[in-house]
Amino acid sequence: MKYYQLACLLSVSVLGASIHAAGPEPILLWSNGAPGAVGEEDVDRPQVWIYAATEDPTGAMVVICPGGGYGALATDHEGHQVAKWFNRMGVSAIVLKYRLGPRYNHPAPLQDAQRAIRYVRANAKELNIDPNRVGIIGFSAGGHLASTVSTHFDKGDNASQDPIAQQSSRPDFSILCYPVISLNSDFSHKGSARNLLGDNPDPMLLASLSNETQVTQDTPPTFIFHTYEDPGVPVMNAIVYYQALIKHGVPAELHIYQKGPHGVGLAPGSAVLSTWTERLADWLKTNDLLSPAKKPAAVSGTIQHNGKPLRWGSITFVPKIPHGAEAFAMVSHGKYALKGAGLPNIGEYSLKIINLGDVVPYPTLEDAVDLQPGGVFSSNVVLGDNTFDLNIEHD
After folding, report:
1. pTM for the whole thing?
2. C-alpha 372: how far from its chain's center?
């Protein structure tokens, strides 16, 4: 039995190595050497692996920052595996190998991550992506790097002769997985801080890289995943960053699982913890990042039920394209309107209309009735103002 288990482990290791070896060739971020490079070895040369989405590409792309406490890089389960997961949803990905401590301290990792975002935008046409749909995802210390990029960015240098340097380094969306956030609190990850800033860091630098204090209204929309039981990076890191996002009016979503260790990656084999990727897919879909570039349109109208205004209900615009984001509105006294962030993209939709009842004083869920269970109604949303008035005959 012991021999059989060992043989299985060996076969898995060989298989993993062959998959990794068959991946894309790495590309140097700076062909003439990175800024502040102290040598010309592999560790001195930040690079990326590009995974282009070939099936139903959405135009979105994400820069992946693996974790490792700023002293190592988990480029497999927090890098290449994640890139392939994004590809399955039509999202292109770029896995970043950034410089590490103690050989390199701040700002080298930040420069490398910013360069990766600029590289993607400068090569958007060749990569078949939308330069306005470039995000970043980071795990553990890579999550700290992703949150640093999301709070310390610039518009680029228009005077530079380098077309990459001319690009903005601000991500359009940010995904943080069990991230290190604070460097100067009692729940900070001391090893990451030491590798990033050395043994005796400047207190002001520690404060400026405690990214919960750096959030502004310009910080990109953010998805955060963590576990309550995480023994390596306490969950308070995720909580304080989420609180800062809400304080500054930044759209955000936080998922905390009760059980689970640190460094789970995609959490394969866990029926519960692996669902964090489903929540992320929902969030990407909700933010219209899994459909063609958004061209929102205003929609309003009236709904008559058996000749009378529908007193209380809902209407959902369900997109007919793969991965499209639905749009939802409540119906009151026969009227509905989709507003603000809830505007649908242009395109074709089927309509789901629910009558929530006319029970006094309050309708209950048991009163809810699907007024067209066969999906009879459909609509084509175009640019500008759309009005859809519906009259439903239903027993």
Report:
1. 0.81
2. 35
Token pair, residue 291, equals 């459909």
Q: Is residue 364 classed as helix, strand or coil in its secondary structure?
A: coil
Structural tokens at position 190: 């001391």
Task: Report whether the peptide linkage leading into residue 261 is cis, meaning its omega lies within 30 degrees of zero.
Answer: no
Q: How far apart are CA 24 and CA 51, in angstroms?
A: 7
- pLDDT tens, position by position, for the chain (395 residues)? 333 333 333 323 223 333 333 469 999 999 999 999 999 999 999 999 999 998 889 999 999 999 999 999 999 999 999 999 999 999 999 999 999 999 999 999 999 999 999 999 999 999 999 999 999 999 999 999 999 999 999 999 999 999 999 999 999 999 999 999 999 999 999 999 999 999 999 999 999 999 999 999 999 999 999 999 999 999 999 999 999 999 999 999 999 999 999 999 999 999 999 999 999 999 999 898 987 666 778 899 999 988 889 888 899 998 887 777 888 999 999 999 987 767 787 888 888 898 887 666 666 666 678 887 655 678 888 878 899 999 888 66
Mapped onto helix, strand or coil, the DSSP state of residue 46 is coil
Residue 360 is encoded by which pair of tokens?
């006094």
Exposure string over 164-184, b if 16+ CB within 10 A, otherwise e? bbbbbbbbbbbbbbbbbbbbe
Question: Which tokens in the block code for residue 327?
Answer: 């749009």
